[in-house]
Amino acid sequence: MADFKNDSITRQEDDFAQWYTDVCRKAELMDYSSVKGFIIYRPYGYAIWEQIQEYLNKRFKATGHENVYMPMVIPESLFQKEKDHISGFAPETLIATIGGQNELDDRLIIRPTSEVLFTEHYAKVISSYRDLPKLYNQWCSVIRWEKTTRPFLRGSEFLWQEGHTMHETEEEARTETLKMLEIYDDLGRDLLAVPFVKGRKTDKEKFAGAEETYSIEALMPDGKGLQSGTTHYFGTGFAKAFGVQFQGRDGKLTNPHQTSWGVSTRLLGAIIMVHGDDNGLVLPPYVAPIQVVVIPIAQQKPGVIPAAREVYKDLADAGLRVKIDESDKTAGWKFSEYEMKGIPLRVELGPRDIENGVVTIAKRHNGEKISVKREELVETINRLIPEIHKEMYEKALKYLLEHVTEVHSVEELNAALEKGGYAKMMWCGEQACEDKVKEMFQATARCMPFNQIAFDETCPICGKKAKKVVLFAKAY
Amino acid sequence: MADFKNDSITRQEDDFAQWYTDVCRKAELMDYSSVKGFIIYRPYGYAIWEQIQEYLNKRFKATGHENVYMPMVIPESLFQKEKDHISGFAPETLIATIGGQNELDDRLIIRPTSEVLFTEHYAKVISSYRDLPKLYNQWCSVIRWEKTTRPFLRGSEFLWQEGHTMHETEEEARTETLKMLEIYDDLGRDLLAVPFVKGRKTDKEKFAGAEETYSIEALMPDGKGLQSGTTHYFGTGFAKAFGVQFQGRDGKLTNPHQTSWGVSTRLLGAIIMVHGDDNGLVLPPYVAPIQVVVIPIAQQKPGVIPAAREVYKDLADAGLRVKIDESDKTAGWKFSEYEMKGIPLRVELGPRDIENGVVTIAKRHNGEKISVKREELVETINRLIPEIHKEMYEKALKYLLEHVTEVHSVEELNAALEKGGYAKMMWCGEQACEDKVKEMFQATARCMPFNQIAFDETCPICGKKAKKVVLFAKAY
What we know:
Chain A is of the alpha+beta class. Chain A has helices spanning 16-26, 43-62, 76-79, 83-89, 115-125, 170-192, 237-241, 266-275, 304-317, 331-340, 351-356, 377-402, 410-419, 431-441; strands at residues 30-32, 39-41, 66-67, 73-75, 94-99, 102-110, 134-143, 157-167, 197-200, 212-219, 225-235, 246-247, 253-254, 257-264, 292-296, 322-324, 345-349, 358-363, 369-373, 404-406, 422-427, 444-449, 468-473. In chain A, the strands form 5 sheets. In chain A, strands 3-7-8-14-11-10-9-22-23-21-20 form an 11-stranded mixed β-sheet, with helices on both faces. Strand 5 of chain A pairs antiparallel with strand 5 (94-99) of chain B.
């Protein structure tokens, strides 16, 4: 059907990377700025991020977290207090050296992450167990000076939230680390229709300065993994480095246990790739800034515009996010445009529909068109939204499950990685084997999934005793 | 009454500046960071900002504006394209010179404001009158490297929103400039209970690069003015400098007309000073993150906590922002604490209240206490909230009006500025006279108010023909 064709973007099978960039730009999600690696979040892209913010803010606040704002700069001297942290981040920092036309004595790192600032502040506001837990979150942008960048997936600046919490006990902090991972997993299932694998990172892949890192990992249609969010348990390392102490219930001074956790605009990359097709973006309905677009057909004919406006009003009154396009562009142009933008539902009505008391609904995710009675429209849309969400989630989940391949040998590992997706392997726990897999196949350990049912005695790489189930994949 | 006394902050009449800083810290609105001039927005302070964001986002979206996000850095070469703009901002910029451990070829200015980035982006996305207007807004933080800083009022980093719009015609852009000023004025009246004087800035005081700047000006209890928000009409200056052109309805290429407008966390300073008293912060109810605090009295007595929780639940169910404090601190401590935090209403109930079927309500803004029947509590609170808001606004308005003094001579100007507030003077329009007022009295032209009814023939400074009504004041 010509209506559904948009020739202006590269086809996925021809060049998936180019398809991705085309969608980012043609769907008007972002644009490049004049600073290499820094993108502009255009209204439509930013609106998706706002939906994610709204979901997470509700969940964070319901679990007792409070928003704060820390400075965007960190003195270099302060940054160096936690050794693993600085060595992890130093290579990719942006550093300000001039302020008010004078050379700065202590150079300022533009924040790549804010553990340092939060911990320093916590040292001031925590003195008793009564002050705990402290459950803070911050919405901001951070800078990581990257050599190669891709819209949303890897950029020199990205938007994110970073939670930083302090707890009386190790157990409570560990619970927080896993609780926030669950909230991220819920975000994927409930809002983005993106299924994640949850697991723990290997020591090689964990966050600089953390004792343990957990992550949610998504799988892209090109077979590559995308780390989509992480939570970290820090133990008392930062607290000790920054002198955060509190008087415990026993009257003794001790260090609190710390976590941090974050997701970023990288999630937009996951949404685009997991659901998109050759006609452009396909948005799951709950995260879509516009859920329904109303398009009058043969709108110059009498009665069409008023009828379309009534449809618009009914849908808006029902609390749906709806847009009407009365512009003088052709219906074909409009169809392509809103396909490209991935609006989940299109409602068309023309003179004949009006005569027959019906409207046509087109579903973006599968191209289906149905005709419904005008008076049943709102009810139908309200039924379709959860249905579409479920179908999109299940399709993505099916793809994910079909691309987890259990491997028992180097050959099978190779074949699984060639096929794309996760190679599930029993691993000895030594970094040397991880390094070897990377060297041979450019694949990394994405995570040790929570489901740790052993299926081999030995590590296929070194032949030593296997200890952990690990998922290897090529990754963004 | 001992309950209402908090001795831990400086009294306003002893040292207003110290009182202000004390409230900022003791009400836990902010804390200092280890970088001079950069503050930490603590949960309670940030929550006030979130209320402002919510109000403005609604108003901005209802008037067709869309949120976007631009890079936080601006290449120095790009910044220099508009000459007035760079000369205005250069002295107070923070400049990054090292990225990924390498010296940068084009140094990066951490954004002090984003006209440059918006205009450059607009050059790419505007080509026809059909693309206009573009009505973008951004929430972010900006850097102005300041020598002397004060919490919220003047900082090296502050949070703000910056709107940047492009229009087909001069008239439409001018309308936008004034429309956004109205929204800021509404914000003061409806949410902050802070009355503003609206007017136009003199050329000396206008924004670097603007043709015209308008502002909302608030008056602090120490007699100083506080510029609380500005809107700018740029004409086509930036558009020409950055090559933004569109094909008009007549088919000819022309430059669009531009505006920008912003308010910042400085508004928190206005709220604190306009309403605060010697017991701490006093928050107007609509902007208060917590509107009602419930305090059980003699809470160890049976039945008190359950009754207090029921009160809490009723208020929360009614949509009020409410907190209950069941901690083991004394009631006196709690009273002082929530007085300090400026929570508009306190609901107390103890064993005798429960027996009598009543609760006590204390109003923060005037210290009044009333006893109401338990079953009338929600209804009473719902009535008190708009009442308190109105009383707070009217009190502030009365103070403002009493401190606008018409002056006809240098002596009267001096006397009015000594008294505090705005000296309303007829002015010749020459910058020399503005400079002279500043030199003599350290006062600046705050604005030329919209109400321009002439009352003198000559400018009291130079004796030449008077052209404009101007408000002079000492200012933050």
